[in-house]
Amino acid sequence: MVPDELRHAPFLGREAVEKHLLTKGQLRSTVWVPLLRGVYVHRDVEVGADVRAQALSLRLRPGDVVAGRTAAWAHGAWVPAPGRPVPWEVTTSLTGSGRDNAVNRRRLTLRGSADWRGPIAGISVLDHDIIERGGVRLLSPVRTCFDLMRERGLVEAVVVADAFGWAGALDLLTLSVYAADRRRWPAVRQTRVALNLANAAARSPGESRLRMVMVLAGLPEPLVNVPLLDDRDVVLGIPDLTVLGSRQTVGAEYDGRYHEDDDQQGLDRRRENRVTAIGGMPLLRYDRTSVWSQRPAVLREVCALSGLRPRNDLEDADFRRPRPSRAW
Q: Quick check: 90 pLDDT over 70?
């Protein structure tokens, strides 16, 4: 049963139950997608920027500013694991009012507020940390990305910058200017290093982490998501990373959870066969275990095929994971 008033927009599950539109059992069915804790939407609704703003407006209190991963989700740069609601992270200005128990991130020094008209659209990102979208106050994409990077280790900071760049939520050069303007802020030095390593062509966090294994070891910067063509300019595949070696060029793939699907595995095999047999490029495949606990093995295999040699020892501290409550 799908009531018409719940079919097209987000709603509070508690209110739907109180109005006898749904039962608690019906709300747990796969028809309804949890967006935020207590906020749901019909599975056929496309969750774009407007829908995300509507969902946020159902939970915001006066004085709250959406921050952290919640703001990253609002800007289209991050999504939680399938089936999990978006965590609720809000803040207020140091000079603003609001009860401390309404804020689950520390208060921030915030500059200015402006209506949102897009990543550029006449708004100076150096002067406006708060934007308004659909009546919702949230940190701007630049300030959101900047704060998330500063609270993470080097590699995870690169992951965040890559995600915002790939989503088109901001321009990485603009973010570099923003960071340079705040060079005395805590953790900015490492953030600026991470920005020099970021690449807006990266399509997933795992892909970014795999790239950092190679880059921080001193291998040449891999090409990111560049198509491999045959002699008739037909695309054979698009490796996540292409390592230009002294002996031969090597492709590297990061296999996330969606690669476990049977249909996807079939597509992966066909692509790998085309890349190897027709394109003549070996393709190495890695997963989250490879990145988190088998980095030396990754380097040995890439170097054995490419003819390259690592110039630096990898530092475990650079790959430090954020605590679970801040996981990306």
A: yes
